[in-house]
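Q: Predict the bound structure with pyridoxal-5'-phosphate.
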Amino acid sequence: MSQLALFGGEKTKKTPFGTGKRFGQEELQQLKEALDQNTLFYWSGTKVKELNRKFAEMYGKDYCVAVSSGTAAIHVALGTVGVTAGDEVITSPITDMGSIIGILYQNAIPVFADLDPHTYNLDPKSVEEKITDRTKAIEVVHLAGNPADMDAIMEIAKKHNIKVIEDCAQSYMCNYKGRLAGTIGDVGCFSLNDFKHISAGDGGMCLLPDEESYVRAFRFADKNYNRFSKDPDETRKIDFLAPNYRMSELQGAVGVAQLDKLESICEQRNIYGDRLSEGIKDLPGIYIPKIEQGNKSSYWFYMFRIDEEEAGVSRDEFSKALSAEGVPNQAGYIPACVYEYDMFKNKNAYNGTDCPWGCKHYGKEIEYYTSMCPTAEEILKTAIRLTVNEFYTMEDCDEVIQAIRKVAEYYKTER
Ligand SMILES: Cc1ncc(COP(=O)(O)O)c(C=O)c1O
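A: Predicted complex:
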């Protein structure tokens, strides 16, 4: 048995991970064309329109609204399906704040359901338990490129007559039983922030099922202005509050160029992630992320779990040993479940007030506390997260596998 690098042995990964340029001539050309239009306003220019058309086409939908961020896309989706003050929205406790912000800005109440221990996505049974007469929508987060159990979730939504929003910020080209995540619920939301599969610096997309919801989303993303009307008085007939989440032509231009690269980026990541799983799935105490039969992940990141007892090592020591082998990783993901953040525990969203929880339109009590979603909490305590990148090579992948195997086998034998 070779000595771990953590204890002075030779490290497994000695060469740097593959790298590459995300932006090139294609983006430059698009940006030049955008500037040559002499306007960067989406309604006057062509780039955001082109991005909407191409994105909708790629996803086999007729309607798409580009916005300023993934957070904005989710807020727009909530506004589009009619989430308002006092409504409850059920969502995942392991996610980015961007999934939650729009719920609170609608003065609605986030309700957290527990997760499947191995897909890290919403557990439909827990979702159903959280439904009340106030539930307006389920916001499904497809975590890290892996689709949630959409058949079961859609079934629950249908039974209770509630809407479904898909948060695909981490899950482009994520395939659920032959359908793309983002096309199954009422609205599909995506992020173009700089850390996602594709980037426009910042940006977001909403996929809509029909013209009526398209118009609602379009208006909700642009101050509730009705730009489809030729009559200026009609344009500014405002009947309720909506923010300004417009995408600029510069973002649209970069987005158009990035879109051409999306499928190959997702394919590379899928091959890399699946190969990694294949290489470590037999190790005792190591639990690979579960991609259900018939599904395909685009691995925004790769997260596996350690059963400390079975593996003979703590998660934190495993993580350190893996780093020493030359494989950067993170013990866990977000520091705690979202409902454990101070804002929730203290119910302090609008600083110094109890809104929206104290809103008269809610009129109910809800508490957020540790142990609320035990499986989600356990995932965060036992997970190790690795970066996935489309520029990583198969050699990188094999060296990561070797490093994980070396660490796992060492502790299994040594204990
Ligand atoms: C699951 C999830 N939802 C929403 C967002 C928000 O996206 P953005 O940063 O573009 O606002 C993110 C971003 O990290 C995310 O990972």
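A: The radius of gyration is 22 Å.
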